[in-house]
Write a structure and sequence with these properties.
420 residues, alpha+beta, Beta-Lactamase, five-stranded antiparallel beta sheet, Nucleotide_cyclase, Diguanylate cyclase, GGDEF_dom
Length: 420
């Protein structure tokens, strides 16, 4: 095992540190001390500090717990050791966290240790002010409408405000994950990991179950709480009910992306879906298809039976398309009586022909119009474009499907009307 020595660069790096720092060998001798160490009062005389190089840190500066901690680091019983140090310098009180980190060679042999002192004096004062005013903070928690909760980093609840009972209908929850929607648990666990790793606040939206069984949307800000050693030991969660806001967002989404008559996707949303499905097909080197279908002679339906009848036919037409789609496929209304199905994971044309047959079979039962006695049989024409056979962009595939649609329409006969 070679002796520990520092290069000029390593000494420069040591001196650039704002915190007091030392390097010692395995015997405890101080090999290097930075400027911050020499400028700190600590609990030793100035003459000892100025002559610290070569002195034994363990004998001259370390108390018994710190001596034991350094010994454990050297013996590889612990990776890093923390020790809180408090002392008085006249009337001034100081608090430091001492961190001992082993220095090893390329063979993982311990040659010495880096000892850094982090000043927690201001942090300790703030903590004292908080404890003195804890009754004030408790009252804030009592009367706050926000949900205030403290958990450990495994989600075990250490404190929760009374407002939980008012908002959720219950209190004294054992673990924060217990009443979270199953689809949101993994995201909340990711947030806990992020708080612990990034040591910063993270915002998240999850669904929590009310006492009555209903799901509520909760917006939570999760913030780290640090131990005296500077490690994240707990999580402070301040959350609120945003169910009304989510309801409004859902209504706005319905208006923006769903057809008001049929309830399926509108043209804007389906075009977005087409692009996403095509991107996925390119990445996975799989097939995709865009189908366009419309009602034969739909104008005659409106002219002969009125627009209410036409609307009823469109609604039923959309339902029958939806009843035939495969899991994962998308159905949308492009305009008027023109609808589309976006199919992903298409293995061959057989997948498309199977859907078209199922769809046309679904049109055989007649539709009862709003007048209550007229039944109408409808027919539909279908065209499709397949990726990559018929094009590599949505516009190319859409054009191919549109041309195929109108080729079929020219071969079709009129619709039939029957009365009961």
């Amino acid at each position: 095992m070679g002796a520990l020595s520092l290069s000029n660069l390593e000494k420069s790096i040591l001196n650039s540190m704002l915190e007091p720092a030392l390097v010692i060998d395995t015997e405890g001798s101080i090999l290097a001390a930075n400027h911050a160490w020499n400028n700190q009062p600590f609990h030793v005389s100035e003459s000892v500090r100025q002559e610290s190089l070569g002195k034994n840190f363990i004998k001259h500066f370390a108390d018994v717990p710190l001596q034991r901690g350094i010994s454990r680091v050297f013996q590889d019983q612990i990776g890093v050791f923390f020790r809180k140090i408090s002392y008085l310098d006249g009337r001034e009180a100081y608090t430091f966290i001492c961190r001992v980190t082993p220095i090893k060679n390329e063979n993982s042999e311990t040659l010495g240790a880096l000892i850094v002192f982090y000043d927690l004096t201001n942090h300790t004062l703030l903590e004292q002010y908080y404890k003195q005013g804890i009754e004030k903070y408790r009252n804030i928690s009592l009367f706050s409408r926000d949900l205030i909760k403290i958990t450990d980093m495994n989600g075990n609840v250490e404190y929760e405000s009374p407002s939980h009972h008012d908002v959720l209908g219950y209190i004294n929850e054992a673990n924060i994950f217990m009443k979270v929607h199953p689809d949101d648990i993994s995201r909340l666990k990711e947030v806990y990991a992020e708080v612990g790793n990034c040591r910063d606040s993270v915002k998240v939206e999850v669904r929590k179950q009310h006492k009555d069984g209903q799901w509520m949307w909760i917006e939570a800000v999760c913030s780290p709480i640090f131990s005296e050693e500077g490690e994240v030991e707990s999580c402070l969660i301040i959350s609120r009910d945003i169910s009304e806001r989510k309801k409004m967002e859902l209504e706005m989404e319905q208006m923006a992306f769903f057809d008001s008559l049929t309830g399926i996707y509108n043209r804007r949303k389906i075009k977005q879906i087409m692009e996403e499905v095509l991107d996925e097909a390119r990445l996975s080197e799989s097939g995709a298809a865009f189908l366009i279908m419309d009602l034969d002679k739909f104008k005659d339906i409106n002219d002969n039976f009125g627009h209410d009848a036409g609307d009823a036919v469109l609604q039923e037409f959309a339902k029958r398309i939806m009843s035939c789609r495969r899991e994962g496929d998308y159905v949308g209304r492009l305009s008027g009586d023109e609808f589309t199905v976006v199919m992903k994971g298409v293995r061959s044309r057989g997948d498309i022909y199977e859907f078209i047959k199922l769809f046309k079979d679904s049109l055989r039962p007649s539709i009862l119009l709003p007048d209550g006695f007229t039944r109408l049989k409808i027919r539909s024409s279908v065209g499709f474009g397949i990726y990559p056979d018929h094009g590599s962009t949505t516009s190319e595939l859409f054009k191919h499907a549109d041309v195929a649609l109108y080729k079929e329409k020219r071969r079709k006969s009129r619709y039939n009307v029957s009365r009961r």
